[in-house]
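User: Sequence in, structure out. Go.
Assistant: Echoing your sequence, followed by the structure tokens.
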Amino acid sequence: MQQEKKISSGFIYFFGSFGGILFGYDIGVMTGALPFLQIDWHLQNNATITGWITSAVMFGAIFGGALAGQLSDRWGRRKMILLSALIFAVGSLLSAGSPHDGQIYLIIVRMFLGLAVGAASALVPAYMSEMSPAEKRGSLSGLNQTMIVTGMLLSYVIDFVLKGLPEVLAWRLMLGLAAVPAAILFLGVLKLPESPRFLVKTGHPDEARQVLSYIRKDTSTIDDELADIQSASQEESAAAKSTSWGTLVSKRYRYLVIAGVGVATFQQFQGANAIFYYIPLIVQKATGKAASSALMWPIIQGIILVLGSLLYIAIAEKFNRRTLLTLGGAVMGLSFLLPTVINWLLPNTSPMLIVVFLCVYVAFYSFTWAPLTWVLVGEIFPLQIRGRASGVASSFNWIGSWLVGLLFPVMTANMSQESVFAIFGIICLLGVAFIRFAVPETRGKTLEEIEAQGTGDRTAYEASTEQENR
């Protein structure tokens, strides 16, 4: 690696997290494209195909995240982000060029696209955490979440701008334009350095020192940080050799694995993606108006998500993780359940009431469960099991996302919307109970203290808690 001049840390952090834009764009773009696709291909009464087309990306992402984690350890974070951007661009253009009534073709292409989406969801946080200094890691993880929701908002705005076009052209442009941010990411990442941790791992400490000189203001600490990275790399290599899949369910780690994987799973089964993918169709079913005329609602949701991500950055280290997750889950659950109760008590209530409550849901989700799930997953697993356990958590999260995207249109075709959302509401409240009884607090705790809560050796944890409460 030859870098002729210093690369600004701002440039590195911006393009290092820019993959979140792609992730977010593809989450959001089908929201506006689907109503036009349904009209063009006459899918209004085919809930199964609608669910498969929408959820195919998440199905591909289940495998994309796992593959990216394995391959990035061999080829590097930077090369895998480049490959993801390329797959994303190609997949977007292939989607736009789908043959008429090519449902199977579009499902397969979107599964291919999902490989890039899953890879981005795994690679961007890993790259950012390895590039950022410890004191900025929390806020920079918030930057990744902000990029994701900004990508969602961007897709909603593009959907709204293109809604006046003929159906056959509108959905194709919406899907195809995803190639633009993919190209921007590819060009930006070409100038990015590889992460110092990967360079150390592959035997290039001098290059790692050079990269650290780009992103650390205080160059006098670089040698100490490099020594820490080398030590951690050796520990991780030793841990990988002594860890098997059976280690995850051993008595020592079972509690923490259940906690981390459980949080990642609950996040998806709480129904957030049902709103993000299908809000125009939800409004259509509530009001009777065409879904293609309801594309302002996704923009409102996107603005709420961006503001919520910024709020999270501001309060991330001021409140306990469990406190925020409990607050968010409780309000989210009530936002799903109250419309059902109100409609039962007052049958003539405006059908738009459910949409208003969905906005409340999105607001609290945006600064609690959305960012904190991945913060907690990143903190809760000890070094010995971190790689395997994080991969399992990510896979369960994507499986949940895929199932919600697949089953929601089928459920609403056979049940009232209020009943479907009531089910999600109950899951939200079960998630709160899970947080209170099965998840340890991780804010301000070392990995050793967190691990002690799962092994029965609570001395370090209790001492830390007592000191914190003084």
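User: And one key feature?
Assistant: Confidence is low (pLDDT under 50) at residues 457-470.
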